[in-house]
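Example S7 (structure tokens).
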């Protein structure tokens, strides 16, 4: 009589199987998200997108090389910014920064406001470092938001002046004063520890930021600036390819206005017309740009800077390995 000596699966084995399934679901989910956005887009038919690219002779070696190069530079700067931030507590190579940034993009592309990026980046590090990673991710995103607000404010001011838009300055002034007051109070007083952003209380964020090297924060903001200039000019290059007539200053004012309004929504509606449709379509209607052409350009920007990098990020997600036997993971 034979006895079956095979031991049942261990807990670690079950965890490994579950982790593989999670990785597959992330990649398949991200792939379906990109596919669905292209083929079931209510504002843009996929065949029209292809016809528009052919009509304007966009798909040439020269154009595609330059557009993809700008996307590579864009994400290269983001990855380098991440490397600089993480170097405050542990050194990582540029290759590791690329893996973590693109892997986090793939994991977060389906989540609202890419909130999944925080958890995705944290999982690359051992437990003692994960709270720091959350803080660094937040600081990296805030540095990008700061540049968006600074340049966008200039562009928006020019847009209002150039196109004689009526703005309720009293409401804007009240909003700015209230915002500054709230931020000051949150960062100045201890009782607000229960209020947090991405799991970080304001006081903890303040203390965490103080521990970072000042050069790191300044360098992070500079890299965010360079990155902003890259994708803003990528948008401008597409305007040229699609023969949208506008001076450089006007075009950049509209582009920067688009980004700051997109970042502010739904926090504040400066212009009531914004809620009636796409921000980009509304803004570029002031220079009589074709509505569908602007939708094509914004779709291409999304493809070049989110969909395409997420494809490479899928490779990093599938190849990511976690040591389940290590209690510190």
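Recovered sequence:
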């Amino acid at each position: 009589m034979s006895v079956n000596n095979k031991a049942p699966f261990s807990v670690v084995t079950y965890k490994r199987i579950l982790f593989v399934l999670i990785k597959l679901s992330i990649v398949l989910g991200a792939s379906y998200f990109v596919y669905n956005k292209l083929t079931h887009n209510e504002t843009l038919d996929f065949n029209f997108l292809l016809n528009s690219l052919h009509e304007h002779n966009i798909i040439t070696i020269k154009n595609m090389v330059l557009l993809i190069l700008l996307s590579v530079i864009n994400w290269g700067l983001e990855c380098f910014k991440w490397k600089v931030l993480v170097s405050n507590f542990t050194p990582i190579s540029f290759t590791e920064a690329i893996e973590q940034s693109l892997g986090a993009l793939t994991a977060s592309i389906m989540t609202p406001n890419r909130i999944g990026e925080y958890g995705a980046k944290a999982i690359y590090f051992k437990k003692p470092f994960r709270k720091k990673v959350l803080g660094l991710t937040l600081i990296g995103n805030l540095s990008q938001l700061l540049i968006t607000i600074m340049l966008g404010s200039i562009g928006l001011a020019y847009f209002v002046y150039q196109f004689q838009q009526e703005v309720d300055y009293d409401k804007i002034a009240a909003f700015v004063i209230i915002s500054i007051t709230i931020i000051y109070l949150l960062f100045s007083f201890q009782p607000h520890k229960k209020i947090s952003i991405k799991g970080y209380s304001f006081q903890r964020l303040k203390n965490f930021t103080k521990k970072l090297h000042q050069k790191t924060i300044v360098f992070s903001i500079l890299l965010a600036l360079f990155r902003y200039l890259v994708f803003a000019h990528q948008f401008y290059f597409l305007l040229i390819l699609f023969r949208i007539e506008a001076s450089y200053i006007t075009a950049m004012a509209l582009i920067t206005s688009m980004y700051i309004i997109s970042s502010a929504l739904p926090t504040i509606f400066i212009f009531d017309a914004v809620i009636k449709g796409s921000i980009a379509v509304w803004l570029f209607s002031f220079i009589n740009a074709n509505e569908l052409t602007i939708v094509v350009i914004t779709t291409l920007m999304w493809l070049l800077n989110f969909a395409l990098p997420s494809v490479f990020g899928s490779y990093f997600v599938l190849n990511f390995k976690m040591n389940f036997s290590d209690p510190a993971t």
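Notes on this example. Residues 11-318 form one domain.
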